[in-house]
Recover the amino acids of this structure.
């Protein structure tokens, strides 16, 4: 154990950095913390232990300002903090590394760090240079422009740690930082921790691994059921006493007894497995035995687990109880427990009960109808065996602690009554008491004849749990350990001494350097290239049928019509980037034209016309504000809020004018529709606005924040982004851009008509989809949106020149949308598979 600062702590002379006194936290009426008092000193590592659901993460969220305590006091360096927020915490030098990294997957590595770190970190230096140094501190070697969704789970944890260390914090909170790290990365992290502790930083370290506690911590506090159950210097307390404090009982052993007699019956076997990640992998699972998979991270273990679960294709033969299975059959037989429960393990929109049973619903059916009584009985039974802590069966799955979510994943695997169980890091982030329950159930399942294969980065876990261990290196099986050979030393030695070892540090990616072409193809602007090509080819085709199509007048007309749609679609892009939508843009554009028709007339003064324009922009500002407030503070969905606004605005339009009236000033129309060559100046203005918008999206914090909340609102909030304010400002920007489209629409129709504008809602969404913006938020481009608006207008114009009926307009629009959606989904699938 590091001795840093122990004497000072023992003497009690160190100043307290953070003091929590009498902290209570309730969720509804359920207490998460009760009368918690604890002090943290400079120059020490203070470990917080406890079972899943004991209140550790809640306590850390209170210290970092993400949650507010129901009762109690927080003081920092002797000064009381009346309301701790993420911004206040950062200003005091409190950094946190979350158990589930607050990584924004639709942003690049560089953008993730620039949006999360204060400007003072960069202090006028080139951002790329600063970010590279930040990544070097944790040994993370990845391209800065690479999108974060390409990172592995371990690399995301390293990026999260890098963000926390970059703040040079006075207090650093590390919540299960090594859960996904290999030994090399763990050793590197411990070296960094010792360095900053030596400089006086207070480190709050949450872990479930007692071995780590002995390596790095000075003091330990144990929570159970939201209360402090004990606090002591690490050197003065035994592991047995710690376990007793954590679980409230004495565990007889860390692992259940292994199979005592070797069976000659083979339950499961894989022979000659070959894929892009595996080479000639063969091993078998005797009945009643658990087989472990080991190796340095990045050497094919996760890929092997996915092959065994039927999630990836492979050559070779897979046999279950004498029956050869193809991939489809294997997928049906296997129950897969993924290492990343947030992405693959739980369905975030479902309840606890639904997450536990959705893969086994047919087992609760009577006559084709689900029996709720039978379902609840089996779920309650398995939850009791695994000690799952949940407020209720119908609670949202994300309301549970990470370890309890993992138990729900295991419950689902067991309820499906599988032919084999494939467990990838099954105890990652799970407390010591729950680990024993998971080990016990895996052993019971194995003893019943169901093959169990476990991948774990913890050699001690493999030694205690498994009867046989296969060691991987660069996709090869390099050693098989059986019986008494299964020891921590043999497992580690086989992994690190393998000649085929690929240096698989979690910090590396397979290709650290990629060409600018590869980066562009992965960027948000990539869909603009095929869109521009289609636009040109369509123009040439129609020109071949009718020479007037490319006349100066028609080109001007296409661009002029596309300008109104382009501005409105740019507004829609802002809403979609945030993960929302705005159905009110069409009626809003029509309403603003109606408003203008009372002021911008030939017989009105310049002052009156100016007032008309100001009223248009004011109306747009108010509409955007109301939309944003309804969504963020009245709990409306974006569809519900903007649909209500759609109806309200359309009603107002008819209240102001029940028929077309109020002709727009011809002088204003001529000025707005001013022509330069074949281009309307308004269209060139649209292009310029799109360019400014692209710069804001890619180069400023405002743009990063906008994309961040669309990528992952929860992670954005934990990063310190003011989500509600950003969302409201985004909807205001959406409406203001729509008002520019309304100015163009006003000069095109020339009269205040309450029936105009409605169609722009669907057209704007069509243009945005064609431009490649994601309907789920986080990804998009104004350039693609403008091209989408031009192509859509060109299609409508081409139908006329080709002498086709209006039916073809809708047909061609539908075909374009389907093609765009297919291209986008194909690209996303390829990125995910990579």
């Amino acid at each position: 154990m590091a001795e840093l600062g122990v004497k000072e702590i023992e003497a009690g002379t160190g100043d307290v950095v953070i003091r929590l006194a009498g902290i209570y936290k309730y969720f509804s009426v359920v207490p998460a913390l009760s009368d918690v008092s604890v002090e943290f000193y400079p120059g020490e590592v203070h470990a917080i232990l406890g079972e899943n659901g004991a209140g550790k993460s809640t306590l850390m969220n209170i210290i970092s300002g993400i949650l507010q305590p129901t009762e109690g006091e927080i003081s920092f360096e002797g000064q009381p903090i009346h309301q701790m927020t993420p911004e206040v915490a950062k200003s005091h030098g409190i950094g946190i590394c979350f158990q589930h990294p607050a990584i924004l997957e639709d942003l690049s590595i560089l953008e993730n760090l620039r949006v999360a770190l204060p400007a003072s970190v960069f202090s006028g230096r080139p951002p790329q240079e600063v970010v590279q140094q930040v990544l070097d501190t944790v040994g993370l070697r990845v391209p800065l422009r690479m999108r974060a969704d390409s990172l592995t789970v371990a690399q995301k944890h390293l990026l999260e740690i890098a963000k926390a260390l970059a703040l040079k914090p006075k207090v650093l909170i590390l919540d299960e930082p090594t859960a996904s790290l290999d030994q090399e990365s763990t050793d590197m992290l411990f070296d960094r921790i010792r360095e900053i502790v030596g400089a006086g930083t207070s480190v709050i370290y949450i872990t479930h691994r007692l071995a780590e506690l002995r390596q790095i911590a000075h003091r330990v506090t144990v929570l159970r059921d939201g209360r402090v159950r004990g606090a002591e210097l690490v050197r003065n307390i035994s592991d047995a006493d710690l376990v007793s404090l954590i679980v409230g009982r004495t565990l007889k052993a860390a692992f259940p007894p292994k199979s005592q007699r070797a069976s000659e019956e083979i339950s499961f076997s894989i022979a000659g497995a070959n894929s892009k990640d595996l080479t000639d992998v063969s091993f078998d699972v005797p009945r009643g035995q658990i087989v472990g998979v080991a190796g340095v991270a990045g050497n094919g273990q996760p890929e092997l687990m996915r092959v065994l679960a039927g999630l990836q294709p492979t050559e070779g033969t897979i046999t279950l109880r004498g029956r050869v299975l193809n991939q489809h059959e294997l997928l049906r037989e296997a129950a897969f427990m993924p290492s990343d429960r947030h992405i693959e393990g739980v369905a975030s929109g479902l309840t606890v009960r639904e997450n536990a049973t959705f893969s086994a619903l047919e087992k609760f059916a009577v006559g084709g109808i689900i029996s709720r009584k039978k379902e609840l009985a089996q779920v309650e039974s398995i939850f009791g065996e695994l000690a799952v802590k949940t407020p209720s069966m119908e609670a949202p799955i994300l309301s549970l602690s990470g370890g309890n979510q993992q138990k729900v994943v295991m419950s689902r695997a067991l309820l499906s009554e599988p032919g084999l169980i494939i467990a990838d890091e099954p105890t990652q982030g799970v407390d010591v008491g729950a680990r024993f329950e998971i080990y016990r159930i895996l052993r019971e399942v194995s003893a019943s004849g169901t093959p169990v294969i476990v991948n774990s980065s913890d050699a001690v876990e493999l030694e205690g749990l498994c009867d046989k261990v296969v060691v991987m290196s660069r996709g090869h099986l390099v050693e098989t350990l059986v019986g008494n050979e299964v020891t921590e030393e043999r497992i580690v030695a086989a992994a690190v001494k393998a000649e085929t070892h690929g240096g698989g540090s979690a910090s590396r990616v397979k290709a650290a350097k990629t060409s600018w072409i590869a980066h562009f193809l992965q960027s948000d602007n990539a869909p603009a290239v095929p869109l521009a090509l289609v636009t040109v080819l369509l123009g040439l085709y129609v020109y071949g049928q009718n020479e007037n199509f490319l006349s100066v007048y028609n080109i001007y007309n296409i661009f002029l019509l596309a300008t109104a749609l382009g501005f409105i679609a740019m507004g829609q892009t802002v809403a979609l980037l945030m993960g929302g939508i705005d159905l009110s843009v069409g009626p809003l554009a029509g309403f603003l034209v109606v408003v203008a028709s009372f002021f911008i007339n030939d017989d009105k003064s310049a002052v009156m016309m100016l007032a008309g324009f100001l009223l248009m922009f004011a109306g747009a500002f108010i509409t955007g504000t109301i939309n944003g407030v309804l969504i963020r503070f009245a709990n409306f969905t974006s569809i519900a809020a903007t649909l209500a606004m759609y109806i309200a605005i359309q009603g107002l339009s008819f209240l102001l004018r029940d028929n077309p009236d109020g002709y727009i000033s011809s002088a204003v129309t001529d000025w707005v529709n001013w022509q330069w060559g074949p281009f309307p100046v308004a269209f060139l203005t649209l292009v310029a606005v799109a360019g400014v918008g692209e710069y804001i999206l890619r180069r400023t914090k405002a743009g990063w924040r906008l994309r961040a909340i669309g990528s992952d609102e929860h992670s954005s909030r934990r990063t310190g982004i003011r989500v509600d304010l950003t969302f409201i400002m985004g909807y205001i920007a959406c409406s203001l851009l729509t008002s520019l489209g309304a100015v163009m629409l006003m000069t095109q129709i020339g009269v205040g008509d309450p029936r105009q504008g409605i169609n722009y809602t669907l057209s704007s969404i069509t243009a945005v989809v064609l431009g490649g913006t994601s309907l789920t938020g986080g990804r998009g481009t104004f350039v693609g949106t403008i091209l989408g608006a031009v192509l859509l207008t060109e299609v409508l114009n081409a139908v006329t020149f080709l002498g086709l009926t209006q039916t073809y307009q809708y047909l061609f629009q539908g075909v374009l949308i389907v093609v765009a959606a297919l291209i986008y989904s194909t690209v996303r699938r390829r990125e995910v598979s990579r």
User: Anything to note?
Assistant: The longest helix spans residues 606-633. Residues 201 and 797 are 67 Å apart (CA to CA). The chain has three domains: 6-102+169-247, 276-496, 527-828.
